[in-house]
Design goal:
The protein has 4 helices and 29 strands. It is mainly beta and 425 residues long. Strands 1-2-29-28-27 form a 5-stranded antiparallel sheet, with no helix packed on it. Strands 3-4-5-6 form a 4-stranded antiparallel sheet, with no helix packed on it. Helix 3 (69-77) runs antiparallel to helix 4. It is globular, with a radius of gyration of 21 Å.
Length: 425
């Protein structure tokens, strides 16, 4: 059903940014629809089932700390070690550090669940977060200043996509169910409206931006994709899918290559230089279920897709039309849950995704934890699981910052910041 666009009564923003407390229980949900997904609270040592699960979690093997990184760097400098072997050594060291990642900061600024988040490209402690009510928070958790809060329209204003403007660090692009794709500054001023549906029956579900080619691309709930230049001139407007375009992404290395994911159960790859109509795609990748996301790896050589049930796929540029790996993983769709999307680590060949245990799957165990799972991008093997007993809800969105040393997660109303726990003196 199309969202209503009636604005809510203005409410002063309650931006609560709190440090992690060891004794803090799971935050209590306040929205009726979210109560169905309430976190279970901290794991109690008195429950044998939970103890068993935590023991299983801690026993998950992660690569041992490499003691030869300095040696590998020296060998690489001498030309005796290849770059792939050095990269693998660095990745093993990073995976070892993940075992000590903990939630050290959180924010709960919204009265509706978080729907979108993105890291600033040059400030490693700054991110933008959007909510189902259209609110946007610009949060630099590295300083004590109050986050920037931009009030949305309320019901029907859900933020579906966010991207910072690489040409101006104080601006960002946003797509929303309000029916617009726009450019705004940190004060909330709308600088340019790229698309406007002027109808409550049509809204925009995703966006991406290329600073190099200076183009903005956005998709709507009717299967249409619109390409514009950053000055606002529309280059083309075509219906590329039969149903909603849930996500789209430009290749970071070849920004003329576009991937679109739809709930029509397909992902399509397009050459923006050769698009003439809905049949001019390079590849069509059929899936068993509707698809939440399709994103290219940082090197542009692989494509990661997340469906709405229990499958993550990895495709390679060497053969786009055939998946390199299929990963069985529970993340089923639920109406009042922000769709779960798997993402790449910015520096290593790793995939991060939130787990939504499904009792209907054969490999589901009783009282399975709602972890953040990390997979190897080549083998599809589980490498690590992150879990904090104080935050045991379903974590829909996970993004590492550009440095790759800090993770931001969206759990219901809450934004969680994970980082390596500092060793005690």
């Amino acid at each position: 059903m199309a969202p209503k666009r009636c604005p809510e009564t203005p409410k002063p923003p309650d931006v609560a940014v709190l440090p992690q407390s060891k004794s803090l229980r799971s935050p209590q949900e306040t929205e009726p629809e979210a109560k169905k997904l309430r976190a279970l609270g901290p794991v109690s040592s008195r429950k044998c089932e939970s103890c068993y699960l935590l023991a299983e979690l801690s026993s998950l093997q992660t690569p041992p700390r490499s003691n030869s990184i300095i040696k590998d760097l020296y060998q690489h400098k001498l030309g005796k070690a290849t770059w792939p072997s050095l990269q693998q050594s660095l990745q093993k060291s990073f995976l070892h550090s993940l075992a000590s990642f903990r939630v050290f900061q959180r924010a709960a600024p919204f009265d509706r669940r978080t729907t979108s988040l993105v890291w600033h490209p040059t400030h490693p402690t700054t991110l933008a977060v959007g909510s189902k009510g259209g609110d946007i928070m610009i949060w630099n958790f590295g300083i004590k200043d109050k986050p920037i809060f931009i009030k949305g329209i309320g019901a029907g204003g859900s933020i579906t996509g966010l991207k910072f403007n690489h040409l101006n660090p104080n601006q960002f692009f946003a797509s929303s169910m309000e029916g617009t794709t726009r450019l705004q500054d940190f004060k909330g001023n709308i600088l340019r409206v790229y698309t406007s549906s002027n109808s409550c029956k049509v809204w925009f579900c995703s966006l991406d931006v290329s600073a190099k080619s200076q183009v903005v691309v956005t998709g709507d709930n009717m299967g249409r994709v619109i390409l514009l230049n950053t000055d606002g001139k529309e280059l083309w407007n075509l219906r590329m899918h039969k149903k909603k375009v849930a996500h789209l992404a430009l290749n970071p290395c070849c920004d003329w290559l576009l991937a679109t994911a739809s709930i029509d159960q397909t992902v399509k790859i397009w050459d923006l230089r050769q698009i003439k109509g809905k049949t001019s795609f390079l590849y069509s990748l059929p899936h068993k279920h509707p698809v939440n996301a399709a994103c290219f790896s940082p090197d542009g050589a692989r494509l990661l897709t997340t469906d709405q049930n229990n499958e993550i796929r990895i495709y390679s540029a060497s053969q786009w039309d055939r998946p390199l790996n299929l990963i069985s993983h529970p993340h089923r769709h639920f109406q009042h849950l922000t769709p779960i999307k798997a993402t790449w680590h910015p520096r290593y060949n790793l995939i991060v995704v939130g787990r939504y245990p499904d009792p209907n799957l054969q490999n589901c165990v009783p009282y399975e934890l709602r972890t953040i799972d990390v997979f190897d991008g080549s083998s599809g093997r589980m490498m690590c699981q992150l879990y904090d007993p104080g935050y045991s809800g379903i974590i829909s969105l996970n993004e590492f910052n550009p440095m790759g040393d800090t993770l931001a997660s969206a759990m219901g109303y809450h934004i969680l910041i994970w980082s390596q726990e500092e060793p005690r003196s």
